[in-house]
Write a structure and sequence with these properties.
about 70% helix; 3 helices; transmembrane; protein-transporting ATPase activity; mainly alpha
């Protein structure tokens, strides 16, 4: 197995992990009202709510993981395009 094949495999594993993590982070966000989140029980948790700091940190982590996910996806695409593996 070549070094580039190992890099591609590692990037694919990282992409799957980031995909699952990103899905979980998005599902943790509080609903802003009236949408699908209220249909699935989001309206029940509006009174409990999350603090502003927790919501900001959740937003930051979501954006960071999303950007890393895009970077890994682009890297894998470039590897496939230029037949590096």
């Amino acid at each position: 197995m070549s070094a580039m094949a190992i890099v591609k495999l590692v990037l694919q594993i990282i992409l799957v992990v980031f995909s699952i993590l990103l899905t979980l982070l998005i599902l943790m966000h509080r609903g802003k009202g009236g949408g699908l989140s209220d249909m699935f029980g989001g309206g029940l948790t509006q009174n409990a709510g999350t603090s502003g700091v927790a919501e900001k940190n959740l937003n930051r982590w979501t954006v960071i993981i999303a950007l890393l996910w895009v970077a890994v996806a682009i890297g894998l695409g470039l590897m496939s395009k230029f037949n590096l593996v």
